[in-house]
């Protein structure tokens, strides 16, 4: 784990790093020492580790809950090079959608493919970050919607250190089997008028989650229009389960 | 409005009253003076104005938010006499269910019938309670699930003083038209394994609400198993919109 920068603002410390070629960012309360809960965040498609909706949530989780938060670039995103295999599939998929194939199914299949790379990357990330003195081996949460949900479902299913997850804006087409293996509390976000994820597929993914405690929060609006009050709810959810 | 008793415990004042033959209860912070938000609560089927889930919520709204809360017995419930018309229909419905008719449809039709009585009763209740010095003409909210949703949807649609509502555990079979006329913020509770309300009917009622701001909270479990953390959410929802 190679640290690239270290800065603080508004009471939150931000460290950029690289781990086995993957660029990442770690936030924690300024002056933090000792172990604390850690949230792994998965960014959306076409975004990166410091996209505004990631950084806003991360800084509030650090400042208001005292948590550490880590996010890395997904293959082919942010500071990572173009991935030839994924790039070729994405190009093929655009042609298949134009030829009339179902967009939601192609997205789901693509996310399942990418997750075979990100699940081991994120597990190695946990190993490394939890060895830092100001993070330690506290309880772990996961936050990810859209692509972050498609990659998050197999990650949360595979990683026993994750004890609570916020997921959503995703459907069950490719990940129902992984979802059934998730048993930790989940808060699941659904946009009622989502133009990218069919409502029935999103409800099916919530239904497929194996968790005894899972709560679906559905709000009107399109894919990117999650209301601000859900961020407050996310903070309370993680504080309740990891705090 | 005739007051029957007046007592206080744990910082909350409770007044039993009767208004035009309808028994009711009013909660407010002990020593309250001046106007404040008022929540009207509608109880469930077979329950009454002081059922535990009503009283628990009312006392927290009074103690933690400083609100006034009022609930009355629905016709044929609590301290009200048996209503011969409703009693006859309920008996007929039991026979119709045994003969194979759809329970959810019969419940919805029955609630629509009862609401023709309760909507004017609850509007008169608002008139009377808001004249009390320690309640006043502040913003009004409505809370009601199950029967309290079936009666609440037409009430909230008809009553412009209501500015926010918590509804749920009900379906759209009889009330979709009223639901479409509701424009205030709504928090809608749905039990994922509800044995009385088909999931599709509950989702259809949420869908039918005309509100720009509406949020669906769905949790696993049967009709009566709404998790405790939803009560915390109810308090925050009313505090945000009426406080």
From TrEMBL, chains A, B:
Gene3D superfamilies: alpha/beta hydrolase. Keywords: Hydrolase. InterPro entries: AB_hydrolase_fold, FrsA_esterase. The keyword Nuclease does not apply. Belongs to the AB hydrolase superfamily. This is Alpha/beta hydrolase. It comes from Kitasatospora arboriphila.
């Amino acid at each position: 784990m190679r640290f690239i920068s270290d800065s603080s603002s508004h009471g939150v410390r931000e460290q950029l790093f690289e781990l086995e070629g993957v660029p990442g960012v770690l936030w924690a309360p300024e002056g933090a020492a000792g172990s604390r809960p850690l949230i792994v965040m998965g960014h959306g498609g076409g975004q990166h580790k410091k996209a505004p909706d990631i950084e806003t949530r991360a800084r509030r989780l650090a400042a208001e809950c005292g948590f550490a938060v880590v996010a890395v670039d997904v293959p082919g995103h942010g500071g990572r090079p173009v991935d030839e295999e994924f790039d070729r599939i994405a190009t093929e998929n655009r042609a298949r959608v134009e030829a009339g194939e179902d967009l939601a199914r192609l997205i789901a299949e693509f996310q399942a493919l990418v997750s075979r790379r990100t699940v081991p990357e994120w597990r190695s990330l946990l190993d490394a970050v939890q060895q830092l003195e100001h993070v330690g081996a506290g309880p772990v949460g996961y936050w990810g919607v859209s692509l972050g949900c498609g990659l998050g479902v197999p990650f949360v299913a595979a990683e026993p250190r994750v004890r609570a997850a916020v997921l959503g804006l995703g459907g069950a087409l490719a990940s129902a089997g992984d979802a059934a293996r998730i048993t930790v509390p989940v808060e699941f976000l659904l946009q009622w008028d989502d133009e990218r994820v069919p409502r029935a597929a999103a409800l099916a993914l919530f239904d497929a989650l194996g968790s005894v405690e899972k709560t679906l929060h559905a709000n009107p609006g399109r894919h990117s229009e999650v209301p601000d009050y859900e961020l407050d709810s996310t903070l309370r959810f993680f504080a309740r389960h990891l705090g």
